[in-house]
Amino acid sequence: xxxxxxxxxxxxxxxxxxxxxxxxxxxxxWRLVARGGDLTASLGRLVVTGLVALGWLAVVLAxxxxxxxxxxxxxxxxxxxxxxxxxxARRARLCWERPRLRWKGxxxxxxxxxxxxLLARPAETFxxxxxxxxxxxxxxxxxxxxxxxxxxxxxxxxxxxxPDLPLPSHTTAYWDYLQDYARQFLLPENVxxxxxxxxxxxxxxxxxxxxxxxxxxxxxxxxxGAIMGWALGVRRVVWAGPALALLALIALLGLTRxxxxxxxxxxxxxxxxxxLPQVWFGRQLLSEPLSQALVLGALWLDGEARAAxxxxxxxxxxxAQAAALGLLPLVRLEGAFAALVLLAWLAWDSRKxxxxxxxxxxxxxxxxxxxxxxxxxxTSPAYFYSRVIGLLRSDVxxxxxxxxxxxxxxxxxxxxxxxxxxxxxxxxxxxxxxxQQIGMSAIGAAYLLIAAYEIAxxxxxxxxxxxxxxxWTRPGLLLGALGMALAxxxxxxxxxxxxxxxxxxxxxxxxxxxxxxxxxxxxxxMRRALVALLPALAVGxxxxxxxxxxxxxxxxxxxxxxxxxxWGSYALVMSGLCFGIAQRMLPILQHNEREGMWEQIAQVNxxxxxxxxxxxxxxxxxxxxxxxxxxxxxHAVHNVQQTEALSxxxxxxxxxxxxxxxxxxxxxxxxxxxxxxxxxELGHLQSVGGVRFDTPTLSASDGPxxxxxxxxxxxLVDVYELLAQPTSDLPGALNxxxxxxxxxxxxxxxxxxxxxxxxxxxRWTTGDADxxxxxxxxxxxxxxxxxxxxxxxxxxPVDGAAPAVIITVEGVPMIATTMPGDGALxxxxxSATDLLNIGDPGLEIQISSDTFVPRDHGLGPxxxxxxxxxxxxxxxxxxxxx
Length: 882
Prior knowledge:
The protein is an alpha+beta fold. Helices cover 51% and strands 16% of the residues. The longest helix has 33 residues. The relative contact order is 0.07.
């Protein structure tokens, strides 16, 4: 019973943390704004205002490397204290709009409870396989240190300010030394420009010699994770993802409720809440749920400001709206562009009577965007620079130059002829309501036609729209685009926030048609659509179906029956759309991505001494494991690159090991890819244990993932301490380990560790597998006599022949047999007498067999060349008995 209670308590804290904090801060801000007067407030206004203020406060403290819980608590406490100390705030009165949940709102409450349950499976993204891991590790590091940057442990002296530099700083020899370090320990960035990065993935080092590593991406998502880490512990920073995704759904529900009532709000929110992209990305700590919440929250504030009863309340709400838009550049690289698109649609849709109030919004928004973009550049300069440079190709630069020339020409012409009659007539024509309707409708109509054309044409070149139709269903996509086209005609004039959302979603859809700028791995290619396009499609579908049913019911004279039929048709169609979209989500309904990853990484750390030097291979797992061991556990981590130009026994690696030992650090070699070898000359490897990772994960697919993509990822991390004084292996019986401790013996030709439910651990061979064991005699040149016993199994497809296996020892064939192809375990044995050692000082054994490729026989996507399964290898002293 304790585990469920613990889970529910964590979920309750995660979901209530941000709203409660926002309510407290928002209450203090509104009391200060009231300053002795009366001000109408509501629960939503307080929460949203407080959360926006909390976001700005957290990101400013993080930018100053000072995001600590005690400092944030002092600042918030001072704000709350000011309400009781300042006379004006003490006399302020908030006129509450009491929240009332009538019977129409109960479906919305039930919907949010179900959505919270769907999202309450946060992915443990601590292994760097995608962007979520970068945010997760950055949030964990920020929660622990208060800094957005990682100070690389100075095992090797690189910083020119250090007194122990091996060479005089800023000399040719010093820069050659830095270049040698960069070649050996920096990795090419895997997501864009060929830039050096301290770790694999979006981790950067703007100035190598300062040994300060910038963790990629914008800072606001990291601060949200850090705050969640303070409340629930560092390992649960990932709970910020579901909390932010639920806030976004609440914002959409509030926006659509205000603009169109419960009949629009509940179906539209349900379409988004039960969609696969919303659930998948909402379970991970990513920028998309936060961006979605900011966009929808800013639009909700716009509607609240227009409905405010006093100018003071309107100014306060518009300030909060501008501040929310100003946070977008601190969440995503294109955040400022997204905010400007929203502002453009809101500005075009403004009425003459509200022009003065809107001017205040534009001024505040411009100031907030400038401040937000400046903070984004200051906190993530390397990421911002590399992304912008990567986008500025020669053709794009030419286009931007001509765009600037055209903009300058238009500004000059407007200043010169702004009072001219043609210009005035053109301006008045653009501000006409009918012109605005036509312009906004044209965006949706264009997207509708393109979507219909690409759906009808079929997936010839796999356009983005086809993939979107598979995730969102074809009727959902077409009805959503139709709603974008109809919205200016069916939504009342005061609902400009909803029209701005639909127009912005149409713009995003058209941009994705031209260039989606996504990775084509499913379901990750839906990320760009999550912020505005999917909410717009959800609202658009509800608007289209509602508008069509209303239009069909108007000509009839029997109002009651026709109205009931219209409502029934609307409910039936929207339920069908929701059911179709939810079908795509069902395969991941109970899935927990990477569940158990934190515990398994912690088990690796438990094998290590604190503040150790860790050398990792540069295989796939080795590159993904170093970041959590460095950022969470504080080890000095280096991936040893092995290429044609680099080797593991380079002078720089020797110097790194010597420096670590001089500083009192213990040195470990972590193996995840046994094909990548550490030269034995660096020291003696002593096994200290290992961890077999096994977590559920979603594999790549050619479309929306199904149940067959839910697999388990397994791999072994084998840990060895690198000792300065080698110890000789004593001759005698030796059971060669297949799992933990196998690295010194399994030289090459073995795949990763696997488990058989009956016979235990095994490894497939590649056809020719080499082992190197200690020589069975005390003297390496003495003739040896011993028995070798190998436990093997060889499975082949039905049409495959029984494989032949040859075991060679020191170049001499010792065992030759034919294995049964049914996978039965067979133990083969051979003997050697007076065998001479040739070549390598150790005992060299090779297991050779023919191979097969499972994919060639229709046995799934496995393209490995498989030989035989090796379960055990034993070498025992020769008894001499026949």
